[in-house]
């Protein structure tokens, strides 16, 4: 798997024109949801160009990251005679880049795709690293492959289309990258207001951290696992709430997962209490999270995490802010205690 080329651009139309001038594709499809079709698609195509592209539309939201959505798009590609020299442009957030990449990687055993991430979450995390997939039976990313995009184009102007809740969701992954690799940057963002950030600089910082880790371990056999800090419990929470009345965005669930896994790090005598408190404080300040229920369902969903071996739940732990280790085995009681701690500090 060759690492993707990631470009920060100020004019997405110009960047695409340059890309197509040196890449000749027979057909091009653009995967969107109802939000990116309205708010972002006009930024990449002119009014007189729609016939040059096939618009592929799915419904927004994690609950639509399913095999049924893929079947719908595969059908459109087939009916429109897309061949192996075709291209898919993924224009959207993490659901679009995860699923669009998976659709491309599996159609006719693989066609090229590029990512144009439009959410903070996708720009700092989901569109970088070649992890592609869909949810199955309400379990996160159960079906998937590793394949890098041909290019990823990051334009921070798309962030202007986001609600505060969506921006906050993406910020969870920025916090995570600092917690696992950069203590000084964590201390810097700890004292910043979210709306005062220079987005391009902070996104580049996250992308650099993730890219360096991914290049050293493309298929997640070792070090890359630290990028899953907060995700064992976080994914279980996200999956549990996926079909509940009040669902959680990915970053919201991961934020809770980071508090829980930081608490477990403390209980394992790795992380100092003052650092646990600092991590908890920044997350509560930004996310204003709510109490969590359904402990038993969260525990059962934790058993489906992809890092697990021999039905043993594995998490990443912090030795301190900026230093993370992977493959720590934990029991159900520690998960319960961490969820109780989270609820108690709200």
Break the fold down into its secondary structure elements and pairings:
Blueprint: E1 5-8, H1 12-21, E2 28-32, H2 34-39, E3 54-57, H3 67-79, E4 87-92, H4 94-106, E5 112-117, H5 120-126, E6 131-136, E7 139-146, E8 151-154, H6 164-181, H7 183-190, H8 199-216, H9 231-241, H10 250-267, H11 273-287, H12 295-302, E9 313-320, E10 323-330, H13 332-345
Parallel strand pairs: 1-8, 2-3, 2-4, 4-5, 5-8
Antiparallel strand pairs: 6-7, 9-10
Helix pairs in contact: 4-5, 5-6, 5-8, 6-7, 6-8, 6-10, 9-10, 9-12, 10-11, 10-13
Cα distance spanning the termini: 43 Å
Backbone structural class: alpha/beta
Q: Kindly give the count of domains.
A: 2
Number of strands: 10
What is the architecture of the largest domain at the second tier of CATH?
Up-down Bundle
CATH-derived topology of the largest domain: Dehydroquinate synthase-like, alpha domain
Please give the order of strands in the largest beta sheet. Answer: 1-8-5-4-2-3
Morphology call? globular
| CATH homologous superfamily descriptor of the largest domain | Dehydroquinate synthase-like - alpha domain
The quaternary organization reads as single chain
What distinguishing features does this structure have?
2 domains, Dehydroquinate synthase-like, alpha domain, 346 residues, 6-stranded parallel β-sheet, two-stranded antiparallel ribbon, alpha/beta, globular, Rossmann fold, 13 helices, single chain
Task: Give a description of the structure.
The chain has 346 residues and is an alpha/beta fold. It folds into two domains: 5-161, Rossmann fold, CATH 3.40.50; 164-345, Dehydroquinate synthase-like - alpha domain (Dehydroquinate synthase-like, alpha domain, Up-down Bundle), CATH 1.20.1090.10. The protein is 46% helix and 17% strand. The chain contains 13 helices and ten strands. It has helices at 12-21, 34-39, 67-79, 94-106, 120-126, 164-181, 183-190, 199-216, 231-241, 250-267, 273-287, 295-302, 332-345, and strands at 5-8, 28-32, 54-57, 87-92, 112-117, 131-136, 139-146, 151-154, 313-320, 323-330. A six-stranded parallel β-sheet has the order 1-8-5-4-2-3. Strands 6-7 form a two-stranded antiparallel ribbon. Strands 9-10 form a two-stranded antiparallel ribbon. Strand 2 (28-32), helix 2 (34-39) and strand 3 form a beta-alpha-beta unit. Helix 4 crosses helix 5, helix 9 (231-241) packs across helix 12 (295-302) and helix 10 crosses helix 13. 45% of the residues are buried.
């Amino acid at each position: 798997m060759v690492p993707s080329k990631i470009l920060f651009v100020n004019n997405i139309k110009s960047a695409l024109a340059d890309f197509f001038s040196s890449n000749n594709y027979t057909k091009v499809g653009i995967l969107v949801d109802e939000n990116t079709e309205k708010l972002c698609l006009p930024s990449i195509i002119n009014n007189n160009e729609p016939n040059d592209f096939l618009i592929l539309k799915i419904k927004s939201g994690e609950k639509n990251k399913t095999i049924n959505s893929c079947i719908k798009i595969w059908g459109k590609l087939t009916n429109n005679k897309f061949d192996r020299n075709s291209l898919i442009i993924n224009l959207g957030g993490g659901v679009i880049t995860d699923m669009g990449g998976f659709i491309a990687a599996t159609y006719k055993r693989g066609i090229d795709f590029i990512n144009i991430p439009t959410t903070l979450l996708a720009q700092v995390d989901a569109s970088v690293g070649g992890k592609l997939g869909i949810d199955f039976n309400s379990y996160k990313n159960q079906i998937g492959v590793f394949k890098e995009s041909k290019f990823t184009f990051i334009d921070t102007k798309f962030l202007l289309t986001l609600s505060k809740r969506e921006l906050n969701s993406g910020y969870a992954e920025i916090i995570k990258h600092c917690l696992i690799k950069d203590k000084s940057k964590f201390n810097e963002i700890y004292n910043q207001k979210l709306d005062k950030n220079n987005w391009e600089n902070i996104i580049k910082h996250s992308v650099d951290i993730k890219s360096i880790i991914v290049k050293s371990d493309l298929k997640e056999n070792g070090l890359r696992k630290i990028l899953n800090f907060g995700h064992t419990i976080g994914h279980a929470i996200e999956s549990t709430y996926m079909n509940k009345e009040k669902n959680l965005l990915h970053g919201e669930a991961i934020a809770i997962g980071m508090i829980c896994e930081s608490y477990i790090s403390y209980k394992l005598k790795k992380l100092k209490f003052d650092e646990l408190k600092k991590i908890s404080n920044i997350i509560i300040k930004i996310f204003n999270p709510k109490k969590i229920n359904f402990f038993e369902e969260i525990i059962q969903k934790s058993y489906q995490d992809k890092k697990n071996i021999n039905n043993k739940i594995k998490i990443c732990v912090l030795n301190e802010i900026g230093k993370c280790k992977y493959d720590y085995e934990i029991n159900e009681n520690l998960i319960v205690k961490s969820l109780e701690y989270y609820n108690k500090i709200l």
